[in-house]
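User:
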Amino acid sequence: MSAYEDIRTIVLERVEDERLDPRVDVHKVTEVITTEVRRYQDRTSIEPALLPLRDPSDMEDRIRRSISGFGPLTDVLARSDIEEILIEGSRVSFIDGTGRLQALEQTSTEDELYHIVKRLLDETDRRLDQSSPMVQARVLDGSARLTAVIPPVSDEISVTIRKYALRRETLQALVNQRSLSAPAAGFLWAIAQARTSLVLSGQPSSGKTTMLSALLAASPSHHIIRCAEEVRELNVPLAVGSFYETRPPSLDGKGEISLRGLVKTILGQRPFRIVVGEVRGAEAFELTRAANAGCGFYATVHANTARDGLKALVNAAMMAGENVQADFVRQVFADTIDFVVHLDADPVARPDGGLRRRVMEILQVLPTMAGADFTTEPIFHREHLGSELKWTGRLPHDSLRELLDRSLPEEFTVHDILEGRVSPL
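Assistant: Predicted structure:
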């Protein structure tokens, strides 16, 4: 055991025995740390196996940050340029804004990191222990999402902390970042003005939530928007709207609030648009009821292509076990979903340090079926991450184009926006 772990273990035992709260009893905890560091230093003069500390004050500071703060994670959690922090056992790494994966130089132990993760969860209603070895939660005042798994589900503690960008995303900002072309951004703005339904598909970290935030920011202030997520990530000011989050069951197995339950509740509130983040299960079936409720929806799904995103939505809806045929669900979604926006990103950072996140295509979904499959047409398409997102020359079908045109200011038409003759941004 290292000197750091030796002293830290003794301090933790004293803090527990004396029933001290590191966040409240700061002065007393500091005294305990100072005393135990001094005692360790004294022991080195009589125990040859122990090496004296080179910098006792640095050791005190390190233990203080571990006991009262977030230990070796303190600095990386505070840095605004870091997107994700990864913990695997005693190893910590992080991904910065350029997409580079780097190892944290400061060493730690699995036990210390486990206690830090539990401290992060203290502000939530979630727990991480043998009875609940997997957890997802918003932490750091809602500025990050934590996903953690511990034994026996995993061999060692495994944690991902995804930090949310503090900037307000807009469609124009995505144009500036080259994720979108200006005509495509204008087209998405037009979609946001009308009672439309849209699916955002892509791999994890491809930019789906960022795009969703930009679409919500483009929505008119009179739209009533209700958002449901397993763990809240969206942070967009809504003039009229709300954000809902799931809740795990309590220790007695009661009190669970599922994503499907949230969508059911929202449908009873007559929203203009429902927003569901990361559709993966039975909640997708409730979206088939959106058309009957007279509301549009935005939903994100994990998929490799836009068409795969539609299939993933159907498969998720079938998990509801409502004794309906897949063909029925497929036809309902074909009638309800207007567009699919597919996003992709570089798998690793490029040599210049950049990580590109791009809209690869925008498909319209036609109400007619091609046998047992969806009928789609590309409105915008990008050949690869390094190419331009171009308009294909196709227009939305007549009734959808009329809906969009009615929702636009008089000086705009969807055709003009697609041609790039005018821009609403």
